[in-house]
Design a protein that fits this description.
The chain is of the alpha/beta class. It has 25 helices and 22 strands.
Length: 643
Amino acid sequence: MEFFRNLRIVPRWLIVMVDAIIVFHAALFAFFIRFNFNLDQVDRFDILPAVLVFTLLAVVSMLMTHSYVGIVRHTHSGDLVNMMKMLGMAHVLLALIKTSNTYVMWLDAGFFLPFSVGLIASLLAFPLLIGYRLLVKEAYQYAIFTRNKGTAKKVAIYGAGQAGILTYQTLSGHGSSQWQPVAFIDDDPVKSKMVLHGKKIFLGINGLKYAVEKLGVQEVVIAINTLTPQRRREIVDTCLALGIPSKTIPPAEEWFNVGLQTKDIREVRIEDLLSREEILLDKNSVAADIKGKVVMVTGAAGSIGSELSRQLLKCRPKHLIVLDQAESALYDLQQEIKNHPQGAKIEYLIADIRNKDRMREIFNQFRPQLVFHAAAYKHVPMMEAYPEEAIQCNVLGTKILADLSAAYGAEKFVMVSTDKAVNPTNVMGASKRLAEMYVQSLDYHLSMQEMEGHTRFITTRFGNVLGSNGSVIPLFRKQIMEGGPLTVTHPEITRYFMTIPEACQLVLEAGVMGNGGEIYVFDMGEPVKIVDLAKKMIALSGKKLNEDIKIEFTGLRAGEKLYEELLNKDEEVTATHHPKIKIAKVKASEYEMIHDNIGEFHNIIGFQDEFEVVRQLKKLVPEFVSNYSRFSKLDSTKEEVLY
C-alpha cells in the first residue's frame, strides 16, 4: 500500500498506455467470443493487424475526447461518460475508414475488425476501463484510511442527499484529510438503514446518538442546505450535549460552480443558530424600482450601509453614491466593490452629514432620486457619555439630509432606525426617536401642501444586527480567544437579532412599498437571552463554562434596558402585503413645532452644558426616561412636554 500512499498524479501518457493495452486485449478476446472459441473460424481473419488498427483508432479517440485527463483516484460518473464517448468515437472512425477503403482500397479488408467483433470489444473494454480506475480509487482511499486511522477523526455526515454525498466525497477523497466519514444521518425515514458509499444511514437525532455511542463518532458535519433553523439548533444542541463538535458546509451557491473543498467546511457559528426562517421578498419589484436611478447611501462604510450598497448594485442603479466620513472603512468598501460586474457608476464620497454646505454641494451635483440614510452614532454608552455628538449626528444630520432630499426633489428618503427608539431609556435611542419624528412630520407637512411628486419619507425600525460593528457577538468571540471572561451586563438581559443581509433586504423592501410617513417594523422573531448566547458561544468554541471560560456580570450600563421593544404602549400596527413586515401607527408631530425646537439645539450645543442638551431632548421625546444614567434626575423635574 505504500505505493498508493505516496501516489500523486500519474503522467497522462501512462493512462493512455494502460487504456490502449486494455482495448487491445479486449479486441483480441472479442474474436474468440464472436466465433465461440472455434479456432478454425478465427484463423480466417488476420487478427493482429485488425486489433492493432482498432487500438490505434481508440488512442486517437482518447486524444479527441480527452478521456485520459481525469485523475484516476478521483474517478466519478463523468469519467464513465467519457469512456462511452471514446469507444463510440473509435467505432465512428472505424466505420469511416472502412467505407473510404471500399473506394480507394488502400488497405486490405482484413485490417479492419468486423462490426460484431468491434461491438463485443467495446462491451468488454468499457467495464475494464472503468473497473481499474475504481480499483485504483478504492486502493488509494484505503491507503489514506490506514495512514490516518490513528489520527483522523471519525465523522458522521448529517444529510444523505446530494450535499451529503459531495461532502463525503470531499472528505474521503482528500489525501491530507484528517476526517474519516463513518456514517450518514438523515431525517428521511425512507433512507433509514440504507447504505451509501458503504456507510449506513441512521435516522435523525436518535441515529446520531447511536452513531456516537456505537461507532465512536467524534464530529458531525451538517450537510443539508434546506435545513430549517430550528432543526439546525436541535442538531447542534444534541452535539453539544454529546460533547462533540459540529461543523457545517456553506450555502450551495457559494461552492456550486467551483466544487466543495475541505477548507469550505467550517465550524458552526452562533449566527447559524440565531437565524430564523428566511423572509422571502419580492426581489424583482425591488430591483425594478431601483434600476436606472441615482441612489445615495449614507453611512455606507458601516455594517448596514455597506451591505445596502452591495445589494443595491445587484438592482443595477444608474449611479450609486456611497458616502461616509470614515476614510479607512470607505476605502475597504471601495476595494471590495470597485470591480463589480453590474455596470453602475459608483461615487465614493468622504463627507460628514452634519456639514450642511458640503451636503448641499453633493445633492446639487448628483441629484439623488433615492436616499438610504444609515449614518448614525449607535453605541449606547458612548452616546450617553457624549450627548451633543448624538444630537448633532442622529438628529441634526438627519434633518439636513431630509431637508435637502425634499429641496432637490428626491423620490424617497428611507431612514434606518432602531428598536432602541421605542420608549427610549438612553440618549442614543431618544435621538433616533426624534429623528423618526422629524422625517415623519416633514412627510406629513409636504403631503398637506399637496405638492405633486414631493419626497416620500419612510422609516424602518429593527433590533440588533448579527455581526454588526460594536455588537455583542464579535465582542464575545474576541473575549473567548483571549480566554475570557465573557462580560454580560445582567443575567436577565435580552435582545432581538437579525442578520445584516436580511435587515438590508427589509430596508429595500420597505423603501419600495412605502408611500410616505410610515414607520416599518420587522418581525424579529423571539428575543434571546444574552447570557444564553454567551454560554452557547463558549460551548461552540469547544470550551467548558466555568472551567475554561467564565461569565462575569458587570451590571447594566448607563441608559441600558433589560428588554428591547419594537412598539411603545401607544403604538399599534397594521398589516402590509408581507406577513413579516408591519406598519407602526404613530401620530405625526406638528412640523413647525418639531422643526423650531430641533433648531433650538443650535443655541445649546457647544456651551458645554450636556444637561441642557438632554433636557431639550426630553422635552421633544416625552417618553424618554433615563435608566441607570446621570440624566435620571432630569426626569423628576421634567417640564411640560412640547406636544
